[in-house]
Specification:
Layout lengths: L2 H12 L24 H9 L1 H14 L3 E11 L10 E8 L5 H4 L3 H21 L12 E9 L13 E9 H8 L5 H7 L1 E6 L2 E4 L10 H4 L14
Parallel strand pairs: 2-3
Antiparallel strand pairs: 1-2, 3-4, 4-5, 5-6
């Protein structure tokens, strides 16, 4: 994603600005405390920095086929939030080659496939971080997923375009869903989300959610995590 496109999307989604670069190293992926605009945000960013670093390192070393954007992990305030409601969210760049089967899907099917494969896993990992299931200053969790739009990835003379899904959900329904006490359809109903085609906001398309074990079973050929790092 080009820098100006990423910054424009960030302003729309979070009402904030940040540098844009894919696959940031673990510490650079975390939103710096000084970037928060309120004491509540600064307190969350300070209190849970170690947990965010743990999450960032896990993704960087154990799932190198995706990358967290620079300053893409933090306690953000989505545009729909009331007051200073804060959601722990991650912006993930997904490295995906052209695939005829994926290209044949409609946009709503593509967003459903990407959320089921990557979004649910990211939400599960964030919700499992120590202290966040009971943190009174946290409203919920969110994921922003960007992937190459089929037909624009690596073709000569074609401007690369990303499709981006941004989804935020309150903590209680997410924890119920992860505990299999809330149906996937109900989670989709309660979540706030929108899809972008490049910079153009498509809006809220029907979202299906299904089990996809890819993130816990896929192994990149010939890749080994650093010595001493357990995935």
């Amino acid at each position: 994603m080009k820098r100006w496109t990423a910054l424009a999307l960030l302003a729309v989604l979070l009402g904030a600005s940040a540098a844009a670069a894919p696959a940031a190293p673990p510490e650079e992926a975390i939103l710096p405390v000084e970037k928060y605009s309120t004491p509540k945000g600064k307190n969350l960013g300070t209190t849970y920095h170690a947990q965010l670093r743990q999450f960032s390192e896990q993704i960087y070393h154990c799932a190198p086929w995706v990358g967290i954007r620079k300053q893409g992990l933090g306690f953000n305030k989505p545009r729909f939030a009331a007051g200073d409601d804060r959601y722990l969210s991650v912006w993930l760049e997904i490295d995906q080659h052209e695939d005829a089967r994926f290209a044949a899907l409609g946009q709503e099917q593509r967003q459903s496939a990407m959320f089921s494969r990557y979004g649910v896993d990211m939400l599960r990992r964030m919700a499992a971080l120590e202290g966040l299931q009971t943190e009174p200053g946290l409203e919920g969790f969110g994921v922003i997923l960007s992937w190459p739009k089929p037909g624009t990835n690596g073709k000569p003379g074609v401007q690369p375009v990303n499709e981006t899904l941004a989804l935020f959900v309150s903590r209680a329904p997410l924890l119920e869903f992860l505990a299999r006490k809330l149906p996937a359809s109900e989670l989709a109903t309660r979540a706030q989300f929108t899809l972008f085609d490049g910079q153009r906001e498509v809006g809220r398309l029907p979202l299906e959610i299904w089990d996809d074990p890819f993130m816990t079973t896929f192994k990149l050929k010939d890749y080994q995590p650093p010595a001493g790092f357990r995935c």
